[in-house]
């Protein structure tokens, strides 16, 4: 199951399995929703000062005027109009909470609106078991290069209480490994990802070799699109799983604020992939930090690799030097492990400053 984050909602996606007639009906439903949205857009552009409620009223009119718009569940209709509206204003607060049913085991989705799509099998919907039906705020059907999907927007506002682990961790991101932590553990870049990236490049070359407008080129483009989808899913799944794991097993997670470093100008593919994966991973660490009530700290990356994590002495080293050797205190560590320890120390130091104010506040309120 694929997971995506749209604050403050979590979007879980499952593939839909059904009959050809059902797929045709889904196409029809998607087209109708698009039609309503475009009509609303048009209306908004033609009539200055149109508000959200005018668009809701428009939906009702469209339902009377066009048979297929009527088939759309009324909330879906409203949702389409408001999607148009939200393109201009940032309102986006209506959910489709009716018109569908989820089976108890979360394996079947039944669509009950006017299109009569009926019951569809969900592939990879296991993660839905973690959530209550009431938490599902909206279901959306989407068509992708490799089939049809249902998106479940889940309200995860409720914090999950977890007992403290009494552990803190610093993460050092590297090109050679995904990260090295302050305990000296190394998480490798997933091999399957590298392999997919190579296949992607190959498919890209194939497309450019084919004659424009030819059937072979269309086929090659379709294959490329599918691979693209697969790679981005793999990358995201890895980021989500790794982030969830590291956040669950620690109370404080410190990492480099890479936006500050402004990403070394390096046009190599490997580097750009690692940058993209890392920033995605960081987003998820911060997200799970909120969900599980953990502290996440981004620290400025200066000097983290040069200073000695034991005594603080600056030990200059070039990029190729893989070992930190301090002549001042005798510490010998893997370069990245030393950096991760520095990152953790800076992270703890920063959090320490914010905690000082807490006892003062509480004593004031007690008196
Ligand atoms: Zn030292």
Which spans of ≥5 residues are poorly predicted at pLDDT below 50? 87-94, 260-266, 353-367
Helix proportion range: 40-55%
Q: Structural class of the helix and strand makeup?
A: alpha+beta
Give the count of helical stretches.
10
- Terminal residue distance: 52 Å
As a whole number of angstroms, the C-alpha radius of gyration is: 26 Å
Average pLDDT works out at 78
Number of domains: 2
Main beta sheet: strand number and arrangement? 7 strands, antiparallel
Architecture overview:
- Helix 1 (20-46) packs across helix 4, helix 2 packs across helix 4 (74-88) and helix 6 crosses helix 8.
- It is built from ten helices and 14 strands.
- The chain has 367 residues and is an alpha+beta fold.
- Strand 8 (168-173) and strand 9 form a beta hairpin.
- 47% of the residues lie in helices and 20% in strands.
- The strands form three sheets. Strands 1, 2, 3, 4, 5, 6 and 7 form a seven-stranded antiparallel sheet that branches. The chain has a five-stranded mixed sheet with strand order 10-9-8-11-12. A two-stranded antiparallel ribbon has the order 13-14.
- It folds into two domains: 2-155, no CATH class; 168-187 and 246-366, no CATH class.
- The protein is elongated.
- Bound molecules: zinc ion (ZN).
